[in-house]
Design goal:
Length: about 270
């Protein structure tokens, strides 16, 4: 007796706009519940005569449909993926093939709480700084591999940065996306217009603060400057104070057990 096993490939969308020598890849929805990056697709659909090739990947399509961050594993923690792995591991393998040869990759995300837009790079160097600057964002966080352990998408790109656009579901985040993509296309000479490149402030991660047990109320916001001795928040019988000055980022991310990440500002040639 013989039988067929039909294996459906993991679902993602690829859209290609324009033609020419210049190349850019925009990745959105690595997390299915962060849909603000889809604004990039809307912008590109309306443009004509793009000088260069722009590939947009809508990564975790099934998670988007279910409005979930992921189905089996956080996709942005399993790159470069595996052929026989779970759903996201197989998907990661497909996505990495799409982006690997692209010289510039911008990966779009959004946060659980209000935040100004900022870029994240897990690698240091002029190319990553330049790419962040072309998007016009005013902040770049150098994150190393403390969170994704070398398994984020941008760890597997030639030059790739992630951008946190702002709060999930907010008008501000969609508007930030529109500005960032338009800056990027203008600054790369792919479309005509006025693009504002920036000279981003550079931050580096200092520590990762886990939420104490039994509920905790954090009094900080994203990019709050916290002085030494300042109260970070209150929990059951605990009052947490800053041991040294820092800026707080990714405060109260719903999917994470981290309360916040502490970063410090560093020099331009960091
Ligand atoms: Zn995300």
């Amino acid at each position: 007796m013989s039988y067929w096993v039909i294996v459906f490939g993991p679902e993602y969308e690829k859209h290609v706009f324009g033609s020419g020598r210049k190349k850019l890849c925009i990745v959105t929805c690595l997390h299915g519940d962060e849909k603000e990056g889809l604004t990039a697709l809307k912008i590109l659909e309306r443009l004509e005569g793009i000088d260069g090739k722009v590939k947009v990947i809508v990564a975790n399509l099934l998670a988007v449909k279910h409005d979930k961050r992921f189905l089996e594993s956080d996709l942005n923690r399993v790159f470069p993926g595996s052929r026989f792995g779970n759903y996201e591991e197989r998907l990661a393998r497909e996505i990495v093939r799409e982006v690997r040869r692209c010289p510039l990759v911008v990966d779009l995300h959004s946060t659980s709480t209000f935040s100004p837009p900022f870029a994240i790079s897990t690698k240091e160097g002029q190319k990553h700084l330049e790419l962040a600057s072309l998007t016009g964002v005013k902040r770049l966080v150098l994150m190393g591999d403390e969170i994704a352990k070398g398994k984020a998408l941008i760890d597997h790109c030639r030059t790739g940065i992630s951008i946190e656009l702002g709060k999930k579901g907010s008008y501000a985040a969609r508007e930030n996306c529109r500005k960032i993509i338009s800056n990027l296309l203008v600054n790369l000479g792919m479309i005509e217009g006025e693009g504002k490149a920036s000279d981003p402030r550079i931050y580096r991660t200092m520590f990762f603060l886990r939420a104490p047990e039994g509920g905790f109320e954090c009094s900080l916001h994203n990019f709050s400057y916290v002085k030494k001795g300042q109260i970070i928040g209150k929990g059951k019988g605990t009052l947490l104070k800053a041991r040294e000055p820092f800026y707080s980022i990714l405060v109260g991310e719903e999917h994470s057990d981290l309360l916040l990440i502490g970063v410090k500002e560093v020099g331009k040639d960091a």
